[in-house]
Amino acid sequence: MYKTSFEKFIGKHDLTLAAAMREIDENTNGILFLIDDSEKLVGCVTDGDIRRFLLAGGNLEDDIKKAANLHPRVAYSVEEAKSLFDEKNFVVIPILDEAHRIIDLYNGKGAGERERHPLNVSVVINAGGKGTRLEPFTKVLPKPLIPVGDLPIIELIMKEYQTYQCDRFHIIVNYKRELMKAYFAESENRYDITWYDEASPLGTGGGLSLLKGKLDSTFFFANCDALLTANYERIMEFHREQKNVITMVCAYKNMTLPYGTVEMGVNGVIESMKEKPTMSFLTNTGIYVVEPEVVDDIEDNVPIGFPDIVAKQKQKGRKVAAFPVNESEWMDMGQLSELEKMRAKLFGE
Predict the structure, then answer these.
(1) CA angle, 15 as apex, 12 and 18 as ends, to 5°?
(2) Residue 168 belongs to what domain range?
(3) SS3 342
(4) Which single residue of 23, 139, 271, 301 has CA 20 to 30 Å from 62?
(5) Same structural domain for residues 186 and 327?
(6) How far apart are CA 127 and CA 124, in angstroms?
(7) Are residues 147 and 58 in the same domain?
(8) How many domains, in total, are found in the chain?
(9) How far apart, in whole angstroms, are the C-alpha atoms of residue 128 and residue 171?
(10) 329 and 230 in contact (C-beta within 8 Å)?
(11) pLDDT digits (tens, 9 = 90+) for 267-298
C-alpha cells in the first residue's frame, strides 16, 4: 500500500482521460503516475499530454494510455532521482524498487514555482456589466471591485497578468464606473490603465469597438470575473503557432449528476442505467487571445456578446480555436457560490 502522500499522484492504468484529469486537478501538480493491477508503474501523464491529445482529436472517454508517456524517466535511489531532477526540469521523479513499484517520489529540494517569461502584451478587461448574479453586493459595488481576500477580483486578475510583464491595461467600464476609477486613483498600487466608457451597455464584446485604432498587436481579452492560473506562455505560443485570430481559453468541467440516469428503448425497454454519472464538457472561461483585426470588424455602439464575435470570425473563414485548461486552473466568481469557492481556494477562508 502506498503512503498517503503518494496516493494523489497515482492512478490506475485503465482510467479514462476525464477521470485522469480529475485526479490531476486534485493533486494540483499537473502529473499522474499510472500503475497496473500489481502496482507496477506503467506510465505517466501530464496535463500537457492530455491537452495535446485532445487538440489532436482525442476524446474525454478514451483510455488514458492513449495520451500517456509509457516510458517515463525513473530512478532506483534518491541520489539517482536528484541527479535526474537537476539535469532537467522534471515535476517529480518516481523512485522504484526492483519490482518496478513506486517507493518514493522526489520533487526537488526547495523546488520553487516555474519561471515565467515576459510576454509584454496588452490586456483588455471588460468590466462594464452590472453583475446581477452577485446581488446584493453589486447594488453597492461594481462586480470588479468585490473583494476576494484583501484585493478586489479585478486587481487579482491584473496581478496575474503582471507576472508575465503584461502591464498595459485597457479597461472597458459602464456600471458604477466612477467608483472603479476612484479606487485605482487612490490605490497604493499603480497601474498603467486606459479607461473606455460605454455610453450604454454593449455586452461582453461590443465594448471592444471603443478600442479601434488603439491596439496594433495581439492582446488578451478577459471578463472581470474569471481568474486564470494556467500557463499563459503556452496559450500565447499555441495562438501564434496556429495563426488564430481568436483563441478561446476553455476549461474542462466535470459534473456529477445527483440522479441515476436511464436510457430507454422501444416500448419503454430499459437499455442501460448509470448511477449518478459524471459528465465532462468544455466550457468557455471568458478569456481570449485576440488579433487587432477582429476589433476592426466590430460595429460601433452595437451590443454583442463576444461568442457571437467568435462565430462571425469563423463565418468569415478566419481561424478560431480553443485552448483547453484544467478545471483547477480556472476560478470564476460570477455567482455567489463560486465567489466563496474562489475565496476558499485562494486564501483557505
Answers:
(1) 135
(2) 122-347
(3) helix
(4) 271
(5) yes
(6) 9
(7) no
(8) 2
(9) 9
(10) yes
(11) 888 989 988 887 778 899 999 999 999 999 99
